[in-house]
Structure formats: structure tokens, C-alpha cells
Write a structure and sequence with these properties.
The protein has 21 helices and no strands. With 539 residues, the protein is mostly helical. α2 runs parallel beside α7, α2 crosses α17 and α13 packs across α14.
Amino acid sequence: MSATAADTTIIEPAGAERPDLDKGLGGAGTLGFGAAILATLLYVAYSVYSDAAAAGVHATAYLPFILLFIALLIALGFEFVNGFHDTANAVATVIYTNSMPANYAVVWSGFFNFLGVLLSTGAVAFGIVSLLPVELILQVGSNAGFAMVFALLIAAIVWNLATWYLGIPSSSSHTLIGSIIGVGIANAMLNGKSGTAGVDWTKATEIGYALLLSPLLGFTVAALLFLAMKTLVRNRALYEAPKGKTPPPTWIRALLIFTCTGVSFAHGSNDGQKGMGLIMLILIGTVPTAYALNRAVPEKYVAEFQVNSSIAAEALAAHSGGVAPPVDARKAVTSYIADKTLQPATVPALGALVTNIDRQVTGYGSLAKVPAAATENMRNDMYLASEAIKRLGKEKTLKFSDTEAEGLKTYKTSLDSATRFIPTWVKIAVAFALGLGTMIGWKRIVVTVGEKIGKTHLTYAQGASAELVAMGTIGAADMLGLPVSTTHVLSSGVAGTMAANRSGLQMSTIRNLLMAWVLTLPVSILLAGGLYALLSAIF
């Protein structure tokens, strides 16, 4: 059997057959698929309308809401493309081991992607957002803010579609982060600054390490797990390719379906959050009254916030060095976050900002009672204070005691409760977009993962080893709030098991994977930066 669009021929054992990849969803399935897309779009429109009405927002001009709907469509489109681009990571092994028919496997994977998004923590979502330039986050409703969102989403979609069309498994996480860096660099240069000033390079480096190390980890651990399995589990059937279209023994089949389920769930939980963070920026920029602050915090929030603010203000006062706070405390704190340079006025400025936020929260008595005119400014002050506290914790010259550090951390949690939230409808919309996306367009990359990485047919043990490692790695990254590439972990895991089994690797495919890995960041940076410059001139 020849691998599609590749010169290398897979060496198949007698009786092995290529799985049937041409069965679609059927008439009823296609109808249900279309109905689900329509229902999701109507649900999004209704949710935005309901939230805006509840917050007292009434449409006086249609253009902002048209831009909002277009931006939401593009954001959900990114998650949809992410779904079918990354489906192969979960389903290739169960399909090529005959554990599940292809058309059932993609629906199964889509459902657990859906669940993964719904049950995600949100930590990854805001980790991605914190990479964006602080001045654009604070003015996300401006023309520059819209240019930022459109540029990074369109760039990410374009690169994802290009690599999907070529059947190359590339990283959606890599692409989105490259797009964010591109926007940050372009924004800095358009404002007369050095390109390096537009990105939080500390956070970018942290995420870069996660993206760099995850495929190496996938390759190595999957290879070691496969070798350990060969040593400990001496069942010959586990290390043989499927016979015809016969499914594997029950226990092996259960293991493979379990790993497919786990990777699908972990993928939804990690990758789904990237779209959530961007959708929240869109909502904050267009309907700040409804989405800038979490108006659903519990009643005890204000009392707890007052206590936490007092503790934080005392800790900052103890390290102010006797310097009086500047007249414009917000500007000083913004400069500190943007320039990453601690000035004598930074700590007293942050202390003044903390006191001012506490005064506002106490004065209104509840976040739900904050008037529309004050909502955006309060949210920005809270965001600035949270980001500044996070950065101060890394300053070696400020020696906070354990008690002071804990107090600042607790206060930051209170701030984040008010500003870093995701409405249920956003989770549901992203879950549908990602879940439905897994059910179409999956064949190109499934063929690459299933046929073009190794020179022999994927065995049960190889599939299980690669999936177990992918599931564990992505799940751990999700708990740590780090985005990782499901694609890189799984495809490198399959390659690791092939190398461990001495099956041989198809070097043309490996070169394509490495090329995509190397090019994704620079291409997405250039695409997003160029689009941002163009859209900034148009808006």
C-alpha cells in the first residue's frame, strides 16, 4: 500500500489493510451537523443580546455589534479549524488499529473535545492573553484593538489551513502564539519603539520552552513506554499489525479507545481555552458594560476584597522606600508592565492604585452596581494591579516576607476573580466549534499520522504508547496553565515508538514535520505583524 502523497511505501504484513476513511456522516449526520452550527450561531447571538440587555446596554449604532459578530465568527472559526486540524492526534491510532471505524471515531472524539472545553479551568486562556501588549489589552475596544484581534486570528487560520491542505501536522498553539508575538512586535514598531518592547518575553520564553520540550518529551517517553511494554507484557498480538479489518482483542481495544478519549478530552481542555481568552477580549472591547467585570461574584466578595486590599496595601507600603506615589499612578504602573523596569515610584504607585480600587469597590458595594461609565476603567485598574503584582513577585531587589507574598497573592486572586472569568455560553460556543470541527476535514492529517511517519503499519502497542504519553503530557500542561501542541506530542510519540521498534522512519515526512515546526513561528509572526499593520491603517 502506498502512502497518499508520499513516495515511501509502507511495508505491510500479510493481511493488513488500510482502514476505510471514506465513510461520511451520512444524510442524517450532515443535517444534524448543519443544524448544530446554526443553533450555535443563534445561541451566541442570543447570549450576547441577553447579557447586554441585562447590563443595560442598548444598541444606538449597529456597526459595533456587526464588528462584534464578525470577530466572534472568526474566533469560533479558528476553533473550528483547530478541531479538524488536530483531530488526527486522537483518532489516527484507533482508526489504524481497527479499534473504531473512522466515521464513529471522529464523532466520539468530537464529543470528548466538547466535554474537555466545558470542564476546562480557564488558566491557559488567560496565559495566552497575558502575552499581548498591555496597551492593546487596556484599549481592546479601540481600532487598534480590533486590528489586533482580526490580525492574529486570521494569520493563525491561514497557516493552519495551509498546513492542513498539505497534510502536515503542525501546531495550532505554536501558530497562535507566533501570531500574538507578531502583533506585539508590529504594534511596538508602529509606535516608534523597539520590536522587542512589544512582547512579554519572559512569558513567551516560558511558553516556548513548553512547546519546544513537549515533542521531545513525547518522542522519548513514548519510546521508553513502548520498550517497557515489550519487556513486561509478553503478548505477541500487542506488537502485531491488525489482520485485515478485524478489531484487536477486547482489552487492547478498550485501552486504545480509552487513550483516544483521554487525548480528545485533554485537547479540548487545553486548545479550547485559547479561543476563549480571545473571545473575552472581543467581548470586553465591544460590550465592556456586560463583560469587563464579573458581575456574578458572590455577595461576600466585597467584604473579602476589602480585607485583602488592606493586607496588600500594607505590604506595598512597607517596601515603598518612603517615596510618595506619583500623581498618575495608573500611568506609572502601566509603564512598569510595558517596560519591565522597576522605578522608585513603581511600588508606591501600585499601592495608590490598590487603595483607589478598594475605594471604588467599597463605594459601589457590589460589582453588579458599578455604572457603565466606570466599568472599563475599573477593569483596567484591576488588570494592571494584577499584572504588576505578578511581575513584582519576580523582582529580586524586593524582598517580600512569606506573609507579605502570600497576602499579595491572595489579593491578586481577588482581582482575577473580577476580571478573568469566562461566561458559560462562551465555553459552550467554543466547545461546539471545536467539537464540530473534529468531524470534518480530518482525513489528510490522519493519513499522515497513520501511514507516513513509520515504514511499517502502526501496531496496537505503538498506538497505545503514543496516546498515553500525549494524554498525560497535555493533561499536565493544562493543570500548569501552559499551552502545548497536541499535534507535536502525538506525532513525535508515534515516531518514538517506530524508532524504538526499529520499524524505520519515513524521513520525507519527518523533514516536513520539522520544517513546519521551525517555520510556524516566523511565518505566523510575519503574517500577523503584516496584517496588523495593514488593518491599523484601514480602521
